[in-house]
User: Fold this.
Amino acid sequence: MSSAILLVGGMGTRLQPLTLSTPKPMLNVAGVPFTEHQIVKAREAGITEIVLATSFKAELFEPYFGNGEKFGISIKYAVEKEPLGTGGAIRNAAAMLSGQGPVAIFNGDVLSAHDLAGQISFHQSNKADVTLYLTEVADARAFGAVEYESDFRVRAFNEKMENPPTNMINAGCYIFAREVIDSIPENEVISVERQTFPKLLEEQARVFAYVDRSYWLDIGTPAALLKATKDLLSGAMYSAATPALTGGCYISPTAKVDSSAEIEAGTVIGAEAIVEAGVRLQGAVVGKGARVGARSILIDTFIADGAVVPPAVIAESNFLGF
Ligand code: GTP
Assistant:
């Protein structure tokens, strides 16, 4: 039994107003909720059970993912009444796992092509307590910058700072030995980044860096969210969860698109959406049941589920109906 926990309980403040009604991990990315890409990635790496650590809008996950049967993996839900932070969430969710082996932990907002199975075997061959997936970015200020030795043993974890000592960052996927999770205090608000990792390093625990420079994107900002969809639709990033495409677009079979509408690559049209005559869509994400009025031109724009865009609206890099 190979186990995972997916952290999906955050408020997603950087994506408001999109996240006022839909939690960030349930936002549509290339035709499916973002979390589906991560669940399918976990399954492909050999994970057989996953607990979704939920809090904000917890009730929106289960109706879509159910017990996981449809996705070929067992899915359970741990709900925090009050958010417990990333560390508290991991401790709380682990109680629902059947397996006792190492646990893969994913931040719910990272799209990555990194080799998860490789990270798990690296963790095992090092007999590590924790193995952090690291990637390199041009500007590490908004992330946790991680320093490590030539044998990949982590030396320092520097959470978000003005002058980071390295551009190697915590890319948001960890393997934890089960004993390390069990040592996190129960029912307390705890941050793995600010408390657990620094404490483990202080205690000289075996914390290792798994460096992988393949595709990585934090979908936590509006621009990044649209980039994720475009990259998945164009093939710049692969996910087995991306549905079948037509001309670089995903158009739900239940959407109604007027034959005079121009639908350009990078566009997603959700179930039961209506796109009227003369509309032009380029890199647009049209939510479920939304209607785009005739002759509107929408570029790099996100339309909320059920929203009505009046005729002849022109919008670029915008969010309508939230
Ligand atoms: P911002 O507010 O825009 O930064 O987004 P966020 O709320 O998602 O926070 P952040 O990016 O710091 O969180 C990293 C991951 O941990 C995300 O996938 C969150 O959903 C998740 N997360 C953060 N805090 C909690 C929590 O208290 N409980 C649970 N279950 N998950 C959390």
Summary: The chain has two domains: 3-218, 244-320. Helices lie at 18-21, 34-44, 62-65, 85-94, 116-125, 178-182, 192-202, 222-234.
